[in-house]
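Protocol step 4 of 6: structure prediction from sequence.
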Amino acid sequence: MTKNSTIQSLKAHDLGQSFDDLGRIPFGTFIGKILSACVDAQESASTAAWDYVQQVLSHEAPVVFSFMDGSSVKRIAVPLITIVPLPFIKLESIKIDFDANVKVNNEYSNQFVMQVNNSSTHEGEVLQTAKSEANMHIDIDAGTVDMPAGLATLLDWMNGGVVVEDIPREQPPVSGNKSIDEIIDAVNDHYETKNDNDNPGSDSEKGHIVDESTDVKDSILGYSDSELSAVLGLGSTSDDIDSFILNRLNMSSPESLVPDYQTDRGLLALHVNWTKPSMERSSVESYEIADFEILSTILSACLWRKHNGPIKMYTDNIGYNFYDSWGLLDLWDGGVDVDVLESIPNDISADIFWAGGKLYAIKAQNKPFVMMDTDLLVWSCIHDIVAGQKLMAYHSENLEQLKSCYLDYRFLKKRKGYTPDPNWDWNQNPYNTALTYFNDRNFLEYYTDKAIDFMRGNMERPMEMVSQMVFAEQRIFGMCAKLKRINVGTFLTSPSDNNPSFTHIWGGKDEARHNSKSGTKLCEALSNAIISRCGENNFSPKVRNLLLKYKN
């Protein structure tokens, strides 16, 4: 056989062998695995879409926007799932191209090498090299698919959850939203009653003063005349007891405003002044408050000591130094505590939760007590009112009537991960806590824990500075009481109740600050009430000068 015929024979043999080797390639397996991978990819896409929908649906807080509508500011809350794109991916088509090429190298060689998919076989000595190549090309078309009918129906339903509300620009109404003139009249009524019969030695004066002493005596939680005589080492007659009480009331020391024995048997009240909120808002170096706030604080403490028992102040170092500069530390015969408020953690915003100090003071108590705002005046003994009660508040408030203050829960700012108690009744009305009585330790701990939990880490500033605090302090109060099945008594039958035993200055403070005439009239009423009820000589020179400044 000639050399050329040998080469031709080898070529035919090599090409046949190449096709045989290509035939051994498992094309079905290759293509099957590609199709299987596409099916797996579609399943993964569907699972990812489901997980995404679940995550978005579980996002309780809506997306909240604020916008101007004419001259008013409005807020809109939109469920998150109604405004985000949903990742529904579908594989529309799959195209697989497979190319198999056989190339023959005409160069002579001593070895024949067959290469298929990078694998080689040796067939002994040959005079040329043959190579086969296999190329695969895959095209996959994918795109979004129409939303499932069930989810589309759900989104249509959730579109009804879009809420638009006005943003409150004013403070919420308190105690019927009494005007400053009504508040001044209420204070003057007590002052005028005290001075209706100011002729020395008259029977009417004696009767009125004896009534005052009886009021103090009655506030000692059930002490009889004989028990008082034994405690005081006095005679058994009522005249002796009344004389002792009157002498104590007329002594020059502020501590004499209440007999010593009342601190053992009376009802403890708490004042709280956390100065950090006002210091942060005003960015001033020294703490100052308006004259009417100093006077209302003095009158509030004096009246409580006179009619009900000891009173304690919770403040911080700045507040302590302020009251010390006025010579007022002895005003609180129950003491002045700075440790509790100084230990409030930094992740509670003083600007947003301006009354948060009250919740920490409440949490520190372990016996029955009253929490009382420094501008709340209690003109008489309330021991009979709280007797047998576990829990009392100043008055109830109506969610429907005060929507601008008690915002829908979705509008409130919450830290990430915050979860309210799932058993709360969101239809429960809140309670005004300007004056509250606590006589249930389990409720106290649960309530303060839940309120503080809402405040912790909740640092996003709202558009207004009312809703966050009243939710933490007053709405949670009502829901906790409902959950614990505790009946909440109230000192007022309604916010508009004109009960003469209570006067809350809070509702008139704004006008007193911005209207100098109204502010002066309020200071005059408070100063006259302090002088008539407590005596101007019971205080430091600085306080006496303030009293005389407004005395008329």
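Step 5 (inspection) to follow. The first helix runs from residue 3 to 23.
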